[in-house]
Amino acid sequence: MPRVKHTDKGVELLARLMRAEAEGDGKLGMLMVGNVGINRVVSNCLDFTQLTTIRDMVYQSPGGFEATQKGYFYQRAREMDKNLARKILKGRRYHPASNALWFFMPEGECPAQWYDQWNVGRFKSHCFYAPDAAVCPAVY
C-alpha cells in the first residue's frame, strides 16, 4: 500500500522535485529528498498541516522547496527519476532522511539545529533535520 495516494502526475511531480533538489547527490540523495517530501504530506504537523497531496507539498509556499522557484525544477522527469519516486511512494526510507521534514545544503558543516529542529545526519551535500516523534508521530 502506498504511503500517499497518488496519480501518474503526482509521481512525475515528485520525480522532478527529487531530480531538481538532489541530482548532484546521485540516486541515493534523490531518494532522500523524496523521503522528506512524502514525510511532509503524511506528517500533518508543524509547517505541514495543510498538505494532503504531492502537488500541495511540491508547491507549498511559503516553506516549500527552493527548486520550484528556480528554473531547474522545470526539467522533465526521466524514467529513472519516476522509478526512484515510485520506490519512495511504496514506503522505502533512507537514513538519515527516514523521518526528516527538512534538508538544506550548507556551505560548511551541518548545524546541530536548524529552525529548532535537530540534525539527524548528512548525505553528501545535504543536512537532514527531523522533528521530535512526540510532535510529529506520523513521520515515525
Count all strands and give the number.
4
Which sequence of strands runs across the widest sheet? 1-4-3-2
Percentage of residues in helical conformation: 25-40%
Low-confidence stretches: none
What percent of residues are in strands? Answer: 5-15%
Indicate the radius of gyration in whole angstroms. Answer: 14 Å
Distance separating the two termini = 17 Å
Q: SSE string, helix = H, strand = E?
A: HHHHEEEE
pLDDT averaged residue by residue = 95
Largest sheet: 4 strands, antiparallel
Q: Structural class, from helix and strand content? A: alpha+beta
Gross morphology is globular
Number of helices: 4
Protein model, in words:
With 140 residues, this protein is of the alpha+beta class. The protein is built from four helices and four strands, in the order H-H-H-H-E-E-E-E. It has helices spanning 8-22, 26-43, 54-58, 79-89, and strands spanning 102-104, 113-114, 117-123, 126-130. Strands 1-4-3-2 form a four-stranded antiparallel sheet, covered by helices on one side. The mean pLDDT is 95.
Tags for this entry?
140 residues; alpha+beta; four-stranded antiparallel sheet; 4 strands
Topology:
Blueprint: H1 8-22, H2 26-43, H3 54-58, H4 79-89, E1 102-104, E2 113-114, E3 117-123, E4 126-130
Antiparallel strand pairs: 1-4, 2-3, 3-4
Summarize the model shown:
The protein is α+β, with helices and mostly antiparallel strands.
